[in-house]
Amino acid sequence: MPPEPQQPQQPYDVHEGRERPAGAGPFVRPARPEDDEALGRLDRATWSTLHSVQPRPRPPYTPFFRETSDAGDHLVAVTEDGDGDGRIVGYVRLARPTPVASNAHVLQIQGLAVSDEARGTGVGRLLIRAAVTEARRRGALRLSLRVLGHNAPARMLYESEGFVVEGVQPREFLLDGEFVDDVLMGRSL
What we know:
Layout: E1 27-30, H1 36-45, E2 74-79, E3 87-95, E4 106-114, H2 123-137, E5 142-148, H3 152-160, E6 164-175, E7 178-188
């Protein structure tokens, strides 16, 4: 059986563990409890039926981190700003797909969001690669995800990072009056 999940280590970035030069672009770090508000805003700003099966969030907003999803489940992409604090421009959530012990060797991407201004800059790819690295570090042997069939950009990104379609649930969701497939993807680690 794989080891119990551990807290994420230091930031992941495109420099593969080497010192990250100042101004080198976005980097990925473990989420912190104080990121809750920024992640909630990002989640609401990026909401779309292209990737969400939930209704659009309405006030009063619930906390981003909940009993079933805390900061330890998330990695965040951060860009440096003028004061050095950084600004969150994306996140990925990693979790076990089921609580069953026989499935403990699998982790699942259960959320990925990139801010509008960071789209097309490699942040999504950076988050996927960090998720793969973190899943391996936690002892997972497989990484899976679900993506809506009409979300071609996300599917292309996942495929380019080694994920393959493992199944399709046709017409699984009714979104904006249209039936949409649920595509199951995965990869070995």
